[in-house]
């Protein structure tokens, strides 16, 4: 048994980010062709494209603002021209901002999280799901966060955006399930990335002490779950919020 994404085309938003680039490489290693979305770092996107083509897969670069419907529609047109119709959408991009208390957080920060979590999910669905319905196969995978269940101080804008995203994904799963399209979320814990490795910052005793597995997860462990949910091995899983946090958060039943 193996994860086989041969002949599938996957779009990863925020593919040049710390987690996104590992997802792109992982889905490509499973056989998928990759649409690499970036917002500002074209050089990283080009490097990633070279890596994926060296693996024997096709890769296209698309630039766009994931908070704007017309921008996502333009991305779709470009991907179709370069690769074909998208089978797998991984909503990974999110606007970055400085976390602070509810009383001090600006209204603009709440708006940015709503736009990049909720509206990105809506716009991606509106743009890419119709083709999936036509083919009777598709995968929507949203990258959520363990913070959605923690609700710690200073997390309010991020949590509000991601919990809104959760609502969209759960409803969408029920609306399009009859077309054999699955809609799921992966919720990473505080994950070790290349940036942490470069800064020798892989460990945090205070955080790790709260995690049942007593360590932080890695970017590859997140990407592995994304690949699984994108595959036919997960064909009967939909509407799920899957924490990849070493047990740090556990959804109840």
From TrEMBL:
Family the entry assigns: Belongs to the short-chain dehydrogenases/reductases (SDR) family.
Gene Ontology molecular function: any one: oxidoreductase activity
UniProt superkingdom: Bacteria
PANTHER family documented for this protein: OXIDOREDUCTASE, SHORT-CHAIN DEHYDROGENASE/REDUCTASE FAMILY (AFU_ORTHOLOGUE AFUA_5G02870) (PTHR43639), SHORT-CHAIN DEHYDROGENASE_REDUCTASE FAMILY PROTEIN (PTHR43639:SF1)
Protein name per Swiss-Prot or TrEMBL: SDR family oxidoreductase
One Pfam family here: adh_short_C2
Gene3D superfamilies per UniProt: NAD(P)-binding Rossmann-like Domain (3.40.50.720)
Keywords of this entry: Oxidoreductase
